[in-house]
């Protein structure tokens, strides 16, 4: 065994088309055209819209509901985020300050000329470098001042989505699944056409 070889390093390259395909599928899943109505989401007018499934249908129901209601889950996560942030005035103040910081930096970029470039600590900084720095500072400030709030938003919205996906028994999903729209075979057929 050679001494200069790195130990325990695993590298894996994901093809660019695979990342693009995953990105497109996520965007298609949370598309605004896929938002289901409130009556369908909550089962208003149905006899038993929510029930505890048996073990044999649990995974299938969760998968189908996650696909069918994904745009609704994204909207509910956004609403949970807005309510949580509004209930935390200090974090709201931090976000307003960050917005002011971004506004100031964008106005500094608008006033920049080749004769008068923006300098930070004596070094000329390009707009791309400023944007990258602002993203880093913003992410650090949000994590430091709002880490627990972000955790609350993610856990509450995740719990709501998972509980809805488990308990919601939607007849229209069963009808669409009988036609093959929610199965992986339907995706394979659609890819070949």
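Sequence proposed for the structure above (193 residues):
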């Amino acid at each position: 065994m050679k001494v200069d070889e790195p130990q325990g390093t695993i590298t894996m390259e994901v093809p660019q088309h695979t990342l693009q395909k995953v990105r497109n599928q996520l965007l298609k899943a949370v598309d605004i055209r896929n938002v289901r109505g409130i009556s369908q989401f909550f089962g208003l007018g149905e006899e038993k819209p929510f029930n505890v499934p048996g073990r044999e249908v649990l995974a299938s129901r969760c998968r189908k509901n996650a696909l069918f209601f994904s745009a609704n889950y994204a909207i509910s996560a956004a609403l949970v985020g807005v309510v949580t942030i509004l209930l935390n005035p200090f974090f709201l103040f931090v976000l307003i300050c960050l917005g002011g910081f971004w506004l100031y930096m964008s106005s500094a970029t608008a006033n920049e000329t080749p004769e008068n470039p923006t300098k930070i600590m004596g070094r000329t900084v390009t707009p791309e470098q400023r944007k990258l720095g602002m993203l880093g500072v913003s992410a650090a400030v949000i994590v430091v001042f709002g880490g627990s709030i972000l955790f609350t938003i993610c856990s509450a919205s995740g719990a709501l989505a998972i509980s809805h996906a488990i308990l919601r028994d939607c007849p229209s999903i069963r009808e669409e699944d009988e036609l093959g729209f929610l199965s992986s075979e339907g995706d394979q057929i659609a890819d070949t056409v």
